[in-house]
Amino acid sequence: MSATAERVPFTATRPGGRPGLRREIGFIGLLWASGGSIIGSGWLFGAQGALATAGPAAIISWVVGAVAILLLALVHAELGAMWPVAGGTARFPHSAFGGAVGASFGWFSWLQAATVAPIEVMAVIQYAQHYSFASGWMKVSGGQNVLTASGIVAAVALMAIFTAINFLSVRKLAHTNSAATWWKVGVPVLTIIVLAANGLLNQ
After folding, report:
1. Domain shared by 61 and 6, yes or no
2. Of 90, 144, 170, 189, which one is least surrounded by beta carbons within 10 A?
3. Is 203 inside a domain boundary?
4. Whole-model pTM above 0.70?
5. CA–CA separation, 129 and 142 (whole Å)
6. pLDDT (tens digit per residue) in 94-129
7. Structural domain of residue 73, as residue ranges?
8. H helices within 39-146, ranges in order?
9. Is 185:35 a contact under the CB 8 Å cutoff?
C-alpha cells in the first residue's frame, strides 16, 4: 500500500452525498463522550479499593495517573490534528512502528470496547444491591461477587438495554451520553463541595 493511500482517512457518506467523516456529535457531545468514557460506573469502586489498599497515599497514584493520561491525551490531540484519520489508536502505532504493533493496539482497543458493556452491567448490579428488589441478584462466594440465577437474568436484560442504546444513531447516542455524563460529573463535584463545606464547618 502506498503512503498516499495509507493516509487517506476512513470515509463515509455524509448528508448530501459528500464523502468524509460524519461529524454529527459536535464539540460538547464529543467532549462529554470522552469524559463519560473516563468516568465510568466503577469510579467509586476504584477509589474505595485504592483507599482500602493504600489509605491516603492513594492520592499519589491518582496524581501519577493524571500525569500519564495528560501526556497520552496531548500526544493523541497533536497526532489527531496533524493526521485526522479514523481509528487513530491503531493507525498511529501502525505508521510509527509497523503492522504488528498497529494490529496489537487495534486488538487491545477492541477488547477494551467489548468489555465496557459487561463491566457497566456489573457496576449497575453492584450499585443496585442497596435496593431490596436487587438484593438477590448477587452473592459473595469465595470472597468474590457472583451473580445468582436472578442476577444473570437481570444482567442479560441490562445488556440488551445497553446494546439497544448503542444501536441508536450517533446524534441520539451523544444526547443520551451527555445526560449520563452530567450525572457522573455532578455527583463527584457535589461530593467534593459537601465534604469541603463539612470540613470548614468542623474547624
Report:
1. yes
2. 144
3. no
4. no
5. 18
6. 888 888 988 998 898 888 888 888 888 888 898 888
7. 1-10+47-86
8. 43-54, 58-82, 88-97, 99-127
9. yes
